[in-house]
């Protein structure tokens, strides 16, 4: 599916540019897009190095295990394929907690670590496992408690109540996370019925 | 507000301090562990580059050619009939694709319509309550070399739709449509 979407976006853009006379912009977009991607990755290095270093300490001191023990009853149901004592659990939980507090730059390295652990359980295949799909479904719905960036923008434009959107955001994000899990389950069970 | 910004501001430093103290208390060689863990970060960042370059080039072409705008104009009447204001349609379409572009559009909407207007509030909630599905999937699957995503993209995009509907309903119910 990614293959199709990728090709469709690119080819549709090129064909559209042919008729629309925007070939110049498209030419520029190729190099700008590539450059933006590399810049993003370079920017990620600093946070990845810092947070993965920190998390290594948290892991070796047993802090991650403690954390996963706390939320075990809930995540056990979300990820039935992951053994409860597996490090993947700790990483997934830390990732979700970081996301909740709007700490995107701490959440990404933890999420990547979680994916690595899930990949070990997956036996190194190049196909996503059930747990990976569930984990990313929850991640794209991104449960937020403090939407810091949005509050900052609202303050910049002199909102009378910059934080009034916090509660609505929490409600909306919880609803979207719950739907993400339900949609994920629907696809999983539909597939497993087909065999 | 003061309390929330205080919490968000002190959370990370406190967390760092806590991890370090806890590690020391449990006799972990903190600095050496940090360095070992950090090394992985470099590896991962480089591993993601091809995945992200591929995805971002496709997105930039699609946007720069004007195809994205045409798509927006095409779906706009339909969106309006189901009660979604035309002004936020571009944000809805761009939100799962590009985080920076969505942030730009949100700031733009808030600047133009005012942070305390219906559009401004809706944009704020939308920006805060969903994530850049394409980016998340590209980075996370890219980091572990997964090439077949299974249902992940479908699930992620449908969840975005659910999140958008939830955001609109919640904003209308709490603030009304003014």
Number of helices of chain A: 9
The biggest sheet of chain A, with number of strands, parallel, antiparallel or mixed sense and barrel status, is: none
Give the tally of β-strands of chain B. Answer: 0
Shape of chain B: globular
Tell me the greatest interface: A-B, 105 and 98 residues
The helix content of chain B, as a percent range, equals: over 70%
Largest sheet entry of chain B? none
Q: Helix and strand succession of chain A? A: HHHHHHHHH
Radius of gyration of chain B: 21 Å
Strand content of chain B: under 5%
Number of separate structural domains of chain A: 1
What's the mean pLDDT score of chain B? 84
| Poorly predicted parts of chain A | none
Give average pLDDT of chain A, whole number. 84
What's the number of extended β-strand segments of chain A? 0
Dominant shape of chain A: globular
Structure in words:
The complex is a heterodimer of chains A (195) and B (178). By secondary structure, chain A is mainly alpha-helical. Chain A has one domain (24-194). Helices cover 79% and strands 0% of the residues of chain A. Chain A contains 9 helices and no strands. Chain A has helices at 2-20, 23-60, 63-70, 72-78, 87-100, 104-121, 130-141, 148-156, 166-194. The longest helix of chain A has 38 residues, at 23-60. Chain A is globular. The mean pLDDT of chain A is 84. Chain B is mainly α. Chain B has 8 helices and no strands. Chain B is globular, with a radius of gyration of 21 Å. The two termini of chain B are 24 Å apart.
Descriptive keywords:
heterodimer, A: 195 residues, mainly alpha, 9 helices, B: 178 residues, globular
Please render the helix and strand layout as text.
The complex is a heterodimer of chains A (195) and B (178).
Chain A: H1 2-20, H2 23-60, H3 63-70, H4 72-78, H5 87-100, H6 104-121, H7 130-141, H8 148-156, H9 166-194
Chain B: H1 2-25, H2 30-64, H3 67-81, H4 89-94, H5 99-113, H6 118-129, H7 133-144, H8 152-175
Helix pairs in contact in B: 2-7, 5-6, 6-8
């Amino acid at each position: 599916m990614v293959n199709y979407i990728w090709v469709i976006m690119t080819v549709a853009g090129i064909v559209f540019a042919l008729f629309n006379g925007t070939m110049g912009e498209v030419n520029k977009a190729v190099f700008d897009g590539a450059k933006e991607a590399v810049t993003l990755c370079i920017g990620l290095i600093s946070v990845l190095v810092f947070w993965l270093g920190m998390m290594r300490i948290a892991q070796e001191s047993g802090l991650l295990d403690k954390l996963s023990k706390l939320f075990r009853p809930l995540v056990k149901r979300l990820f039935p394929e992951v053994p409860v004592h597996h490090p993947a659990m700790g990483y997934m939980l830390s990732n979700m907690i970081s996301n909740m507090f709007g700490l995107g730059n701490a959440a990404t390295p933890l999420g990547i670590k979680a994916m690595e652990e899930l990949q070990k359980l997956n036996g190194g295949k190049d196909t996503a496992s059930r747990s990976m799909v569930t984990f990313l479904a929850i991640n794209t719905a991104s449960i937020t408690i403090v939407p810091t960036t949005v509050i900052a923008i609202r303050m910049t434009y002199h909102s009378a109540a910059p934080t009034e959107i916090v509660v609505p955001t929490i409600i909306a994000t919880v609803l979207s996370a719950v739907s993400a899990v339900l949609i994920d389950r629907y696809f999983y069970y539909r597939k497993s019925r087909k065999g | 507000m003061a309390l929330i910004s205080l919490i968000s501001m002190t959370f990370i430093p406190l967390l760092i301090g806590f991890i370090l103290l806890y590690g020391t208390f449990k006799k972990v060689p903190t600095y050496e562990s940090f360095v070992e863990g950090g090394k992985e970060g470099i590896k991962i960042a480089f591993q993601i580059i091809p995945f992200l370059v591929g995805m971002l080039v496709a997105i930039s072409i699609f946007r720069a050619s004007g195809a994205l705008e045409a798509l927006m104009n095409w779906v706009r009447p339909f969106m309006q009939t189901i009660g979604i204001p035309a002004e936020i349609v571009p944000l809805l379409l761009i939100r799962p694709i590009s985080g920076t572009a969505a942030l730009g559009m949100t700031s733009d909407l808030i600047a133009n319509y005012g942070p305390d207007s219906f559009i401004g509030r809706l944009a704020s909630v939308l920006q805060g309550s969903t994530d850049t599905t394409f980016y998340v999937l590209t980075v996370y699957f890219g980091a572990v070399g997964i090439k077949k995503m299974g249902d992940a993209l479908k699930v992620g995009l449908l969840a975005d739709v659910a999140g958008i509907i939830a955001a609109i309903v919640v904003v209308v119910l709490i603030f009304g449509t003014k």
